[in-house]
Write a sequence for this structure.
């Protein structure tokens, strides 16, 4: 669900809309950026700024200081959006120079994502399956465990899993069609026999409870409106309800589990499997990037957290490579 935004009203409103339209034309959703510009637009109205060229460095600094953003990452995001907007205006020759000269805040205490091992993922799905129903949501356990399985087993974004429809499943080829996701792209995601069996069992149990599912209907929904898929935020809240009950040990320096960790776990698990199968990861990274719906492998690299298992596999591969060379030197 997108956050509702007020209509841009400041003297810079036209320039903001042009900037957003430019990026929308490139296939970007840009929701968070639009929200940040909306905040700045409101500030410009409050300050009664009468022209785009009247925006000063002090004014921008005061705006950023006025926002209750104590976390450096949050502050830096807002700063980055304004920087890109001002730089774009300079390139478009609508400003002579950018009034923004602040440096990003230093990030401290950045924690690695929590990565679920296969056994932990099985416990997560088993526990989720047992979730009790409530008056607004029947078969909660069935629905949420299937969504979690898709996020962990295929690396889907939660929004992609939540919006799936029955007609998006090609049972013969075992392929999901993911429609219009990030950057307005669609892609095909193959799945294996175990996930196919789980999906078929899900549909069977769901239809036994709610009746026949039409092809255009969402796979995951609650309540009377069968055409409205379950909210990503609701799925995330359910994950936060479940994981503390699993007794997971969160190591020092690792962030507490969140739903997006399932996607991280898929990416790292895939890389680890390639190492163990003797596959060169660099030869397959573009495949993984495409599978996960990224525009560039650099986006996928963000998910590839170095773990002890990965280091062990990399060291063993190097030893196998270097051992004959070392023997030749020693002899």
């Amino acid at each position: 669900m997108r956050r509702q935004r007020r209509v841009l009203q400041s003297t810079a409103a036209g320039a903001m809309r042009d900037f957003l339209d430019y990026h929308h034309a490139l296939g970007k959703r840009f929701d968070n950026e639009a929200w940040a510009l909306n905040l700045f637009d409101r500030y410009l109205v409050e300050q009664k700024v009468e022209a785009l060229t009247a925006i000063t460095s002090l004014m921008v600094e005061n705006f950023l200081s006025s926002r209750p953003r104590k976390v450096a990452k949050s502050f830096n995001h807002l700063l980055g959006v304004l920087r890109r907007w001002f730089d774009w205006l300079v390139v478009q020759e609508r400003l002579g120079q950018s009034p923004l000269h602040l440096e990003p805040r230093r990030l401290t205490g950045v924690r690695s994502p929590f990565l679920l091992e296969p056994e932990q993922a099985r416990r997560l799905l088993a526990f989720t399956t047992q979730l009790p129903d409530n008056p607004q949501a029947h078969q909660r356990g069935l629905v949420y465990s299937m969504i979690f399985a898709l996020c962990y087993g295929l690396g889907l974004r939660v929004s992609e899993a939540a919006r799936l429809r029955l007609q998006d499943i090609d049972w013969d080829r075992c392929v999901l069609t993911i429609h219009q996701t990030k950057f307005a792209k669609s892609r095909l995601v193959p799945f294996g026999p175990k996930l196919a069996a789980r999906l078929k069992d899900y549909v069977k149990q769901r239809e036994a409870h709610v009746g026949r599912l039409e092809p255009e209907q969402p796979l995951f929904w609650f309540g009377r409106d069968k055409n409205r898929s379950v909210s990503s935020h609701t799925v995330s809240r359910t994950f936060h309800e479940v994981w503390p009950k699993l007794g997971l040990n969160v190591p020092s320096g690792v962030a507490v589990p969140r739903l997006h960790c399932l996607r991280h776990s898929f990416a790292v698990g895939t890389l680890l499997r390639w190492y163990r199968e003797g596959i060169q990861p660099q030869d397959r990274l573009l495949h993984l990037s495409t599978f996960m719906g990224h525009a560039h492998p650099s986006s996928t690299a963000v998910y590839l957290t170095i773990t002890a298992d990965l280091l062990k596999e990399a060291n063993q591969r190097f030893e196998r490579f270097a051992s004959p060379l070392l023997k030749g030197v020693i002899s």
Summary: The mean pLDDT is 85. The two ends are 67 Å apart (CA to CA).
